[in-house]
Amino acid sequence: MPVRSKQLAVAVVAVAAGGAAVAQVANAATTVKLGAAKNKIAFNTTTLHAKHGKVTLRMANPSGVRHAVAIQGHGSGRTVGRGGTSTVTATLKKGRYTFFCPVPGHRAAGMKGTLIVS
Question: Which of 103, 78, 111, 73 lies closest to 90, judged by CA?
Fold first, then answer.
């Protein structure tokens, strides 16, 4: 099961004219962890969830097969072998996106899933 980091809120307090305090809150990036299935052409999950904004998919590869992770239309991470980590980061709006392995033939073999951004 993927692990999603907690959303962090960073508050910046400024003193407005007249002494009133104004707070601005910004959401930190969401990092979603997944893995390649061991010695298969597959991920360990086919559905991921993230909050809109800056989203990072971080895929650990325990497999002897080289893999990477990509978000359709939003870039891809580097291809890594056993023990490596492939990372892709994109700024995403709410919606559904396809994540996949960009190694030739892997997506066609079923190494893909849905990223749901809310």
Answer: 73
